[in-house]
Amino acid sequence: MFIKKILLNTKHKLLKIFSKQSERVSDRCENLTSIPGIGTKNCNNFYEAGYTTPESIISASDEELLSIPGVGISFVKKLRKTLGRI
Asked: Which CATH number does 2-85 carry?
């Protein structure tokens, strides 16, 4: 009985932790996903590389963007083409 209570308590604490982390990732991705080609799956790569705002991504050079894991030349070309229309 005592062990069951400890396990249940631990489960609730872990669920809280994961829920909070998920919310933080969602909040920080909301800004970046306004850029075409950046979704919830790859926004963390941009954030961890120091690109936390759409402006920081837009002002980055092609070489800087290509150094981000998961970013290829097709993304950079699409980004530049999209920005050219604005």
From this structure: 1.10.150.20
